[in-house]
Amino acid sequence: MDQLRNKKPIPWQRACHECDLLLTGGLAPPGQKLVCPRCRCTLHRNGNHSVYYTIALSLTGLLLFIPSASLPLLRFSLFSFGADNTLLNGVYSLYKAGFIWLASLVLFCSVLAPLGKFLLLLFICCGSAWKFLDRAVAFTVRWYQHIKEWGMLDVYMLGILVALIKLRDLGKMDVEPGLYCFGAMMLVANLSSLSFDQNAIWQRMALRRALREAAL
Amino acid sequence: MSALQKALKKGMTSCLSCHQLVILPANGGHCRCPRCGASVHGRIDGSLMLTWALTITGALLLLPANILPIMSAIYLGAGEPSTIISGVMQLYNSGMWGIALIVFVASIAVPVMKLLGLILLLVQIQLRLHFVPTQAMKIYRVVSGIGRWSLLDLFMISILAALVDMGFIAQVAAGPGSTAFASVVVITMLAARSFDPRLIWDAHDGDLYATAVEPETAHRSAAENG
Ligand SMILES: [Zn+2]
Ligand SMILES: [Zn+2]
């Protein structure tokens, strides 16, 4: 930033990533958001205590993942037959029927990407406290941006609700405890991606670097 | 207009991954973001070509996705494979019009609207038609936001396949159309990602093929214009 300031009269802080407009304001004040004046896209949302909220939420999400993935979500019974739906056995029955590409897409979007998001967020928020993890954290933030939109728990939830209504007339549908855990996990997943603010991480790392330099 | 400055004209750009303001190398090439290490280009490399290619592929795959059966449901020995459209019609005929509407929006309206929106954006930029950039940005945001909901039908098939698995009494299985439909969803999501919205503003400002200009020249041309 310093060399930038010497070279040019206006201290540009940020360029809008959707319309390339140069802005002098870099970050939003706490509790508010910064909106691009030209294209109205949200540039930065400054939530309070973003790092700690994200750690708490992603830990909760990881804990909720265990029952959501192991307990049955729905139970369908017809005459004396019955079958459960868990997060994984739907994928397995697609895989068994030979739809490997479809099975891996469903597996990725409903299990791996949400789990990965929780793990990456936890690593980013906790890891930004140590110097030797700087490169790994920067790399992880990049990966988080890539898999962010592939976590589709909310779409899966809607799929469950549609299946629930669709099969209600055919046989007996029961909601199993896993579904409540899954619903909670979906909520926590959305909250954690909402509360995560990568600028807070970069600021935290920059502050730690500045403190270290001041101490030396 | 002097207050509105484009970053690329000043030889800078925003890192798409961490939104850091990065100074591009003077020769107009790309570099690595000093903060997060992502590769930074002035504009996404070959954005228009890549988006066209993915959009056309997606549109072509939409045909087998709609013609081939997406799933087959057998109930008490009766039943037949159903395509996306016949599945929606079945739901509508059995009185579940709410569900029919949701499935229709997710599996037919969203992919078609997405492809049409992307084609509209690409044509507007390449033919330099007169358009309002804020409206184009609205289309871009809708296109990049709604794509994921198309996976609804596929998730539902995976749930039903696990729930209704009772041999000859009742059985739900995926059909070949589902593979094509899964590809449509993934490809249109990638197409929306490869589209660079900053090109909308470039076309609006009339410098579509703008490359990184060195600060001095940028200052001079700004002075000439002003
Ligand atoms: Zn903007
Ligand atoms: Zn970056």
Task: Give a verbal description of the structure.
The complex is a heterodimer of chains A (216) and B (226). With 216 residues, chain A is mostly helical. Chain A has two domains: 1-46, no CATH class; 51-215. Chain A is built from eight helices and seven strands. Chain A has helices at residues 2-7, 50-70, 87-96, 100-127, 134-147, 153-167, 177-195, 198-215; strands at residues 14-15, 22-23, 33-35, 42-45, 74-78, 81-85, 172-175. In chain A, the strands form three sheets. Chain A has a three-stranded antiparallel β-sheet with strand order 6-5-7. A two-stranded antiparallel sheet of chain A has the order 1-2. The longest helix of chain A has 28 residues, at 100-127. Residues 1-5 of chain A have low confidence and may be disordered. Chain B folds into two domains: 1-44 and 202-226, no CATH class; 47-195, no CATH class. Chain B contains eight helices and seven strands, in the order ββββαββααααβααα. By secondary structure, chain B is mostly helical. Chain B is elongated. In chain B, 55% of the residues lie in helices and 10% in strands. Classes of the chains: A mainly alpha (216), B mainly alpha (226). The interface between A and B is large, with 71 and 68 residues. One zinc ion binds at residues 15, 17-18, 20, 33, 35-36, 38 of chain B.
Topology:
The complex is a heterodimer of chains A (216) and B (226).
Chain A: H1 2-7, E1 14-15, E2 22-23, E3 33-35, E4 42-45, H2 50-70, E5 74-78, E6 81-85, H3 87-96, H4 100-127, H5 134-147, H6 153-167, E7 172-175, H7 177-195, H8 198-215
Antiparallel strand pairs in A: 1-2, 3-4, 5-6, 5-7
Chain B: E1 12-14, E2 21-23, E3 31-32, E4 39-40, H1 47-67, E5 71-75, E6 81-82, H2 84-93, H3 97-126, H4 133-146, H5 152-163, E7 170-174, H6 176-194, H7 198-205, H8 215-225
Antiparallel strand pairs in B: 1-2, 3-4, 5-6, 5-7
Helix pairs in contact in B: 1-3, 1-6, 2-3, 3-4, 3-6, 3-7
Bound molecules: zinc ion (ZN) (2 copies).
